[in-house]
Each structure stands twice: as structure tokens, then as C-alpha cells.
From TrEMBL:
This is Beta-defensin. The keyword Amino-acid biosynthesis does not apply. Residues 1-20 form the signal peptide. Keywords: Antibiotic, Antimicrobial, Defensin, Disulfide bond, Secreted, Signal.
Amino acid sequence: MKLLLLTLTVLLLLSQLTPGGTQRCWNLYGKCRHRCSKKERVYVYCLNSKMCCVKPKYQPKERWWPF
């Protein structure tokens, strides 16, 4: 039983430390990166001063409000 608990603990820690993991942003539709891919655009900036790269279909549409 102790071996099972130790194994689960190690697997949980390793899943948190895997390289390449990116922070999610913009309602989990975007990823915080230094550069966006060709199919993504910057909409906001993340708290870690990286760009929040979001696909255009998930970005809000700009509306022109009549005054």
C-alpha cells in the first residue's frame, strides 16, 4: 500500500514538472508564450509578462456601439 501511494505521489509531481507545459489564459482558450504561432494572435498579456496567444475564432468580436 505504501508503494502504491509513493508511486502515485511521484507520478503527480512529475506531471507538474514536465517541460513544455504552458500556462492557460483567456478563459482557457489561449496559452501564455513568448511567440505565437502563425494561426494565433495576441489579445492580452499574461501575468508572467508573456503574450496570451489565442486563435481568432475565440477572440471577442469588436462591436461598434452607437452613441
